[in-house]
Amino acid sequence: MPAEPLPTEGDAHDGGLRKVARVVLLDPRDRILLLHGHEPDDPADDWWFTPGGGVEGDETREQAALRELAEETGITEVELGPVLWRRTCSFPFAGRRWDQDEWYYLARTDRTATRATALTELERRSVAGARWWTCQELSRAHETVYPTRLAELLRRLLDEGPPAGPVTLDTEIV
Q1: pLDDT tens, position by position, 108-120
Q2: Rounded CA gap, 50 and 57, in Å?
Q3: Separation between Cα atoms, residue 132 and residue 35, nearest integer Å
Q4: Which stretches make up the Nudix hydrolase domain (predicted)?
Q5: How far apart are CA 51 and CA 22, in angstroms?
Q6: Cα 162 to the chain's mean position, in Å?
Q7: What does pTM read for this prediction?
Q8: Tens of pLDDT along 82-101?
Q9: String of DSSP letters for 85-138
């Protein structure tokens, strides 16, 4: 069964949903950056996902989004835009179930070179790289991508601009 975007082993749960901030990072050519993840012990069980991760300590979601983007891609010169989408999801990964409340922030960058600078031990075992995707490539992809309607969501974003407020996506349970 395919998993979802990568949690970190030390994430707090406080009995509820894990708070997650993700980044829809676009380059000057309107390509989106996705990371290639897989189950730590099964590289064939793989998927693509947006950079991001769990809120740590007293951080805001905005701070978490920028920190995670820097750690996972090395890209730091971005200005976060609005929250585009919100999603609740539940998935198995690395031997446990993860229940998350994810917020997706828009950001743009001129920098397209990526280099992970501060991956956790679990991320080092389960992230296989990054790739910039055009909307057309994403819509034709046979790979698993999260959120599952990302190609459609990206097309709407590029055609219409950011929504007036965050759009709540369907809950995804894997």
Answers
A1: 999 998 888 776 7
A2: 22
A3: 9
A4: 16-156
A5: 6
A6: 17
A7: 0.87
A8: 999 999 999 888 888 889 99
A9: EEEEEEEEETTEEEEEEEEEEEEE-S-------S--HHHHHHEEEEEEE-HHHH
